[in-house]
Amino acid sequence: MSGGRRIEPIRGMADVLPADSGHWQFLEQLLREIAGSYGYRELRVPVVERTELFRRSIGEVTDIVAKEMYSFEDRNGLGLTLRPEATAGIVRACISHGLLHNQKQKVWCTGPMFRYERPQKGRYRQFYQFDVEALGYPGPDIDAEMIAMTARLWGRLGIESVQLQLNSLGTPASRRAYREVLVEYFSDHRAALDADSRERLERNPLRILDSKNPEMAAVIAGAPVITDYLDSESAEHFAALREFLDAAGIPQVLNPRLVRGLDYYTRTVFEWVTDRLGAQGTVCAGGRYDGLVEQLGGRPTPAIGWALGLERLLELHRACGGEVPPPSPSLCLIAIGEPAARAAFGLAEGLRDALPGLGLELDCGGGGLKKGLRRADRSGAELALILGEEELAERAVTVKPLRSAEPQRRVPWEALAQQLAERLQRGSE
Ligand code: ATP
Ligand code: MG
């Protein structure tokens, strides 16, 4: 073999290894199940969209559009971007396919998102989100449903160390009124602002409240709060949402400084935060975006959604003691010697024909029985099927339970599928 130079993985983009993929699948399956139980269906959107889509929806003066997008031109000069989030693509897809003409939509989407951020624990350049959106629903009941769905997730996973933070951003008009007093306040405290915030003061002052710089904390703490400037309809909407949540027994913490990093939010915004993950403590975040569909060329359509970071969810689940073993085969077929290996191959195919979905691993390691059994044990299999010279002559296999003291038995090939089916049936009862 030639000694080629190793190709390094890309910074901030992780491989999910077999030892962890079972945990991922478990969480993804649970999320799909919960979304399905509320009547949401999957909508898959491309990983790449026109750059313009994200510029127009997320907003020019956001971290994502200003400095985090993976943008490039395709061979035809078309400006494209790897999706940094799913909402924009979902709204685009709903408009493209007329899914909002006299209809409402409840959908979810999952997959990798891409943001050029500084990689650190809980913050990656390719990360996975599970994303849920309801389009066409104006009422606070749907806001409550969104939050209840995520609360159900914590319940199912036995995670208690999360807190729901809630705020209302009001309508664009009430936000404008708030914006004015905010600009006035921060202009009076200009000396206390960092460079980022000074720039935001000109272009997007609300985002100053979203600053992660600890030196900004004091000046932010003294700023006027949006709650005092809410229009009456938004205030009613917010109060009604809180009543729904109270009725469902979901505790809330009001955080009038929660503004979220994206421009398109209106009224309800929320985050689930935890102190178990260090600096990247937001596991799930969402909000209402009543203006976005129209902004992207559709008819005015109220909508709300949330997105959850799967890496952070998995870390949190682990930190709370949750463990999921990777799926293991139930059988491992060990052949000893060349003729037996050929017979074993055919036998294994026959068993897979007879029992679709059966987890059967063919031990292709060679060596004697002892080595084969050691590998079978490591594979996690329930049973070893042993096919040696003697068994081959008898057209039988030795069935050896690996996880119990049950004695081994010899079973003729013809009877094997039937006996395994009965055994697996008993095992799953
Ligand atoms: P943050 O303030 O942590 O940057 P954000 O407001 O940019 O988060 P959203 O766009 O709301 O995040 O994304 C929703 C969720 O996706 C986040 O709460 C987080 O769990 C996850 N997430 C966002 N960016 C990343 C990333 N770079 N790496 C891993 N997970 C991420
Ligand atoms: Mg971010």
Attribute tags:
429 residues, alpha+beta, 8-stranded mixed beta sheet, binds adenosine-5'-triphosphate
Quick rundown:
This protein has 429 residues and is of the alpha+beta class. The chain is built from 15 helices and 16 strands.
List the helices and strands and how they pair.
Elements: H1 18-37, E1 41-42, E2 48-50, H2 51-58, H3 63-68, E3 71-73, E4 79-82, H4 87-96, E5 105-114, E6 126-135, H5 140-157, E7 163-168, H6 172-188, H7 195-203, H8 217-221, H9 232-247, E8 253-254, E9 266-273, E10 282-288, H10 292-295, E11 303-309, H11 310-319, E12 331-335, H12 338-354, E13 360-363, H13 369-379, E14 383-387, H14 389-394, E15 396-401, E16 409-412, H15 413-428
Parallel strand pairs: 1-5, 7-8, 12-13, 12-14
Antiparallel strand pairs: 2-4, 3-4, 5-6, 6-11, 7-9, 9-10, 10-11, 14-15, 15-16
Task: Please provide a written account of the structure.
This protein is an alpha+beta fold and 429 residues long. 40% of the residues lie in helices and 20% in strands. The chain has 15 helices and 16 strands. It has helices at residues 18-37, 51-58, 63-68, 87-96, 140-157, 172-188, 195-203, 217-221, 232-247, 292-295, 310-319, 338-354, 369-379, 389-394, 413-428, and strands at 41-42, 48-50, 71-73, 79-82, 105-114, 126-135, 163-168, 253-254, 266-273, 282-288, 303-309, 331-335, 360-363, 383-387, 396-401, 409-412. An eight-stranded mixed beta sheet has the order 1-5-6-11-10-9-7-8, with helices on both faces. The protein has a five-stranded mixed beta sheet with strand order 13-12-14-15-16, with helices on both faces. Strands 2-4-3 form a three-stranded antiparallel beta sheet. Helix 5 runs parallel beside helix 9. The mean pLDDT is 94. The chain binds adenosine-5'-triphosphate and magnesium ion (MG). The site of adenosine-5'-triphosphate has 18 residues, from strand 6, strand 10, strand 11 and helix 11.
